[in-house]
Specification:
Blueprint: H1 2-20, E1 22-27, H2 35-50, E2 55-60, H3 68-77, E3 82-86, H4 109-116, H5 119-127, E4 133-143, E5 145-148, E6 163-166, H6 170-178, E7 182-185, H7 191-195, E8 201-204, H8 206-211, E9 220-222, E10 228-236, H9 237-241, H10 245-268, H11 270-279, E11 283-285, H12 290-296, H13 309-321
Parallel strand pairs: 1-2, 1-3, 6-7, 9-11
Antiparallel strand pairs: 3-10, 4-10, 5-8, 5-9
Length: 323
Amino acid sequence: MKKTLVFLLIVLFFATTASASMKIKLAVVTKPGSAQNIVADKFKELIEARSQGEITVKVFHSASLGNETEILQQIQMGTVEMGIITAGPFDTFDPIVRVVNYPFLFKDNDQADLILDGPLGQEILKSLETSGFKGLHFSENGFRNLTNSKKAVKTPDDIKGLKIRVMASALHKTIWQTLGANPTPMPWPIYTELEQSVIDGQENPLWVMEVYKFYEIQKYMTMTRHVYSSHIDVAGLKWWNALSDDNRALIAGAIKDAAIFQRTDNRAKNAGRMALLGKKGMIIEQHPDVTAFRARVADLKNMDLYSDPRVNALLIKMIEATR
């Protein structure tokens, strides 16, 4: 009888231990060393240490689970638990995210942090619940800049006719149409399309030019800083709600710390990236006519993209907060 009882207790112990463990699938579209991956890898390190191995993370990188829209759909369905996703593609799920990507909204990194880590940023993360997402935190892509293989660009007039790759985002497409380009939505990665001149250029933060070696195929870069591009560190809402309070607290704390680590790391490297890109032969326009760029897109806030009352109200609050 005693042996049977001991055996049952052992079986119960291992069954309980097994059921307590958790495996998280986390997807990113970029390759190792990229901004999204730095968040993902840091989160994996932190959560596995803090949970003493009870929570493990498998990072699926390099678009192995699809493009960012497809990853978001899988998170909605529950086949993937988490993702580090550029804010742009969210606007097909919830137009409120267009507020984050409004052109020339943030003056600098400090202002972006102040707003996105504050109540207005929390309003955006909370809104994502209506689409089946749990918005956890904002990490960053960085300020976006234009590159192309055709000509130097200093003013909006110089952009006319350039075929520019954009994300699957109605807002980003409209921005570049308004500036006179021919915007072409295209999933990541895009090196081959640039190399073969399927597209003339693209717009992304500095780290992209370095990690993806765009200096090999893009001669001109213009420091437009036209959009502060954030990542939204996101989980599936149904999965999130099924977690224990303790696990939610562990995950939320780890992703916040990973995001802050990545933002700091990204900014510390930008000066070196600029030096590298110049050394590699890119012709960099450091002082474009930003006033002219701003003027060209100033009416976007009055377009249908921002006609949703929730979106419009938040955009007004954002503009006032960043003046």
